[in-house]
């Protein structure tokens, strides 16, 4: 067996299953899960219809590069959304959801024969970044987010010698779990570091279409274009239809950016077996070409956040994020519970599932930036999210009313 597999940590939801072992929630309370970030809004009917009507395509082997019409759809959406122009033949590729491609890009980019290769990522972070780095033979370095700066990642905390050994940098904007959006100045800093040290930037942007106020979140390609980097040197942006169009089971997205990196990634994916099936390609073309369903989806999330956040704010340190569908809340120290204790007790007493923040981060530089926080995914119907919030309020109030010893 590959010895690097032994370096992988249990996935957060496996740890959550172990945490809840032996817990028997009250039978009279229906189970409400805010734990998993799985979209639960209905899939738009037109996407399903196009998928089904193209099932004859299953008789054909798909090309890894995808049909030209599909790549045109990617480039067209990027032009409309970010005002950037990309060559659909050389600068975009279909991927089977952003997750598999974010993993695969590390296997393509990292040269484990070089001394002590490093992959830098935010902390907290999407667990795929860590696993991808470890299985590529690199060491992850975790850059903490700063609550005092709207959870902006403290890239300045990364030592110079780490940047010198860095081969790949994962960024996530809007962030998971914080919802923070990277401003142009932050992109400019990272581009300068990439130029100085030659590392690739993999920009995870799968939450880009769920936002609540002001302008749409700035994307990596958009930032590069605004800074005069029209060749998107050493930059790849990853996105998918899962959150945007409520089709997580479709496993459809794309990667776009530096043509030289796209060429090498296509070679890797050809051997890896990363082709998208013809029916999924047809459905994806339609989905990327329609914005009405995206606007409606965004409004459903906006309604939920407007209903839930004011309920929770009096009992938890929580505020409306820049974007995404998570609330990243801090547990008051006065309650005397860790994030794992809070999650287990909430499950046991009120049958509401939340994810401990420490499961989404690693202890690094002497601290785990996810400790004492919980992630709540507002993916259930509004009524369920409101009921879950009301139960959480009752839970916290019951703890606050207990006499101290």
UniProtKB/TrEMBL annotation:
<protein>
    <submittedName>
        <fullName>Succinyldiaminopimelate transaminase</fullName>
    </submittedName>
</protein>
<dbReference type="InterPro" id="IPR050881">
    <property type="entry name" value="LL-DAP_aminotransferase"/>
</dbReference>
<dbReference type="GO" id="GO:0009016">
    <property type="term" value="F:succinyldiaminopimelate transaminase activity"/>
</dbReference>
<dbReference type="InterPro" id="IPR019878">
    <property type="entry name" value="DapC_beta/gammaproteobac"/>
</dbReference>
<keyword id="KW-0808">Transferase</keyword>
<keyword id="KW-0032">Aminotransferase</keyword>
<dbReference type="Pfam" id="PF00155">
    <property type="entry name" value="Aminotran_1_2"/>
</dbReference>
<dbReference type="InterPro" id="IPR015424">
    <property type="entry name" value="PyrdxlP-dep_Trfase"/>
</dbReference>
<dbReference type="InterPro" id="IPR004839">
    <property type="entry name" value="Aminotransferase_I/II_large"/>
</dbReference>
<dbReference type="InterPro" id="IPR015421">
    <property type="entry name" value="PyrdxlP-dep_Trfase_major"/>
</dbReference>
<dbReference type="InterPro" id="IPR015422">
    <property type="entry name" value="PyrdxlP-dep_Trfase_small"/>
</dbReference>
<feature type="domain" description="Aminotransferase class I/classII large">
    <location>
        <begin position="32"/>
        <end position="392"/>
    </location>
</feature>
<dbReference type="GO" id="GO:0009089">
    <property type="term" value="P:lysine biosynthetic process via diaminopimelate"/>
</dbReference>
<dbReference type="GO" id="GO:0030170">
    <property type="term" value="F:pyridoxal phosphate binding"/>
</dbReference>
